Amino acid sequence: EDQVTQSPEALRLQEGESSSLNCSYTVSGLRGLFWYRQDPGKGPEFLFTLYSAGEEKEKERLKATLTKKESFLHITAPKPEDSATYLCAVRILTQGGSEKLVFGKGTKLTVNP
Amino acid sequence: GAGVSQSPRYKVAKRGQDVALRCDPISGHVSLFWYQQALGQGPEFLTYFQNEAQLDKSGLPSDRFFAERPEGSVSTLKIQRTQQEDSAVYLCASSPRARLSQETQYFGPGTRLLVL
């Protein structure tokens, strides 16, 4: 069964304290791994897509990396405005020939000033 | 430009009532998805439309859930005889093309449904 597991469930950091979030997956036929940011009361906001092991993408203080079994979201010198829930999702091919996203439960990040 | 919009943003229903949730995707987007997000969980896939065709409804939890997109733009998710376990945020997402390939999905703000 296709599965996405994120850890930790919650993470508290001090402003400027770098850390990493983990997303491990077991899927048959990965067609992309996605990172989203979700603020309370809002829909997920797209951050990155990664397609192959070794790929890396960066945006401001965020850097996403991908291996064959997991992805990391590295946060460098975070600021309070980085506080949010970070969701990882894998895109898979369904039996009907369409595609869908399978999400993890997310990591709730709190950055204290 | 305008993103994905959903209405209502909040809905309180009594158990047994029928509800209808609306999604306005980004103009011209071919693909439309519905997800259900329970409190503290990630979104879970419900159904997928390519234009007006519902190509995948494998995630709909029961036959009380019904979705349509008759003209290939606006979509409605209908839940009949609501139950307390239907309480969740219902997210709609759209994508420009039929095959996701290099595309991502753009999410709306969601409709928060509370069934009492």
Detailed description of the structure:
The complex is a heterodimer of chains A (113) and B (116). With 113 residues, chain A is an all-beta fold. Chain A has one domain (3-112): Immunoglobulin-like (Sandwich). Chain A contains no helices and eleven strands. Chain A has strands at 3-7, 10-14, 19-26, 33-38, 45-50, 56-59, 62-66, 70-75, 84-93, 99-103, 107-112. In chain A, the strands form two sheets. In chain A, strands 2, 4, 5, 9, 10 and 11 form a six-stranded mixed sheet that branches. In chain A, strands 1-3-8-7-6 form a five-stranded antiparallel sheet, with no helix packed on it. Chain A is globular. The termini of chain A are far apart. The mean pLDDT of chain A is 93. Chain B has 116 residues and is mainly beta. Chain B has a single domain (5-97), classed as Immunoglobulin-like. Chain B is 0% helix and 47% strand. Chain B contains no helices and eleven strands. In chain B, the strands form two sheets. In chain B, strands 2, 4, 5, 6, 9, 10 and 11 form a seven-stranded mixed sheet that branches. The interface between A and B is medium-sized, with 29 and 28 residues.
Break the fold down into its secondary structure elements and pairings.
The complex is a heterodimer of chains A (113) and B (116).
Chain A: E1 3-7, E2 10-14, E3 19-26, E4 33-38, E5 45-50, E6 56-59, E7 62-66, E8 70-75, E9 84-93, E10 99-103, E11 107-112
Parallel strand pairs in A: 2-11
Antiparallel strand pairs in A: 1-3, 3-8, 4-5, 4-9, 6-7, 7-8, 9-10, 9-11
Chain B: E1 5-7, E2 10-13, E3 19-24, E4 31-37, E5 44-50, E6 53-56, E7 65-68, E8 75-79, E9 88-95, E10 106-107, E11 111-115
